[in-house]
Amino acid sequence: MAVMSPRKAAAQRDGQSLHDLLVETAQKMIATHGTTGMTVREIARLAGVADGVLYNHFSDKEELVARALLEHVRTTEAELGELPVAGEGTLTGNLRRHVEFGLALHKALVPAFSGLVGQPKVLERFAEISERSGYWRDRLVAYLEAERTLGRLRVESEVDATAAMLVGYCHASVLTTLFPHTAPLDPPPVNAVVAAALHGIAPPDAEGDTEA
């Protein structure tokens, strides 16, 4: 009679499937050590199951890592708290919250994704299973669109471009800390970036001089 491992037995007692146990184990590995060097053997060892069990629940290692990565994104976002609601609070305070959320999110996730640069299949699987509507950038665009609809932003406001600039700021700020030798950049403070996004850099009477 086969002896069940303690982790497997505990998972079944708690009603957790082996599928979920493996995803949870891989997600914790990503949160602690990143994605570089993850192996099926190490995931199975930490989950307390045989190596071959993985292939009973996933088509391959890439699917497991992709699902663990998605769970890591969801867990990280949940830990960062709620984002502002359009029409409530101030535009400055709400945008500052969005940018601070984005900075914290990038700081937690960029290392995990950067470790997968040489594993495009994992990134392809992640794109297939993730819900685009849940991405922070899309939530930022939706927030700005809602504020524009409410009249708290100008009707001609370029919300997509504004979101792209704010997301780019988060990217640059985090990448600078990860790779200081390749990008010697001193990012401006969040308040300055929010002010630039809200008010622009040209005086009101110069708006007609800009090119279409």
Automatic annotation (TrEMBL):
SUPFAM superfamilies: Homeodomain-like, Tetracyclin repressor-like, C-terminal domain. The lineage of its organism: Bacteria, Bacillati, Actinomycetota, Actinomycetes, Pseudonocardiales. The keyword DNA-binding applies. PROSITE patterns: HTH_TETR_2. Residues 39-58 bind DNA. This is TetR family transcriptional regulator. One of its GO terms (molecular function) is transcription cis-regulatory region binding. Residues 16-76 form the HTH tetR-type domain. It comes from the Bacteria. Keywords: DNA-binding, Transcription, Transcription regulation. It comes from Amycolatopsis vancoresmycina DSM 44592.
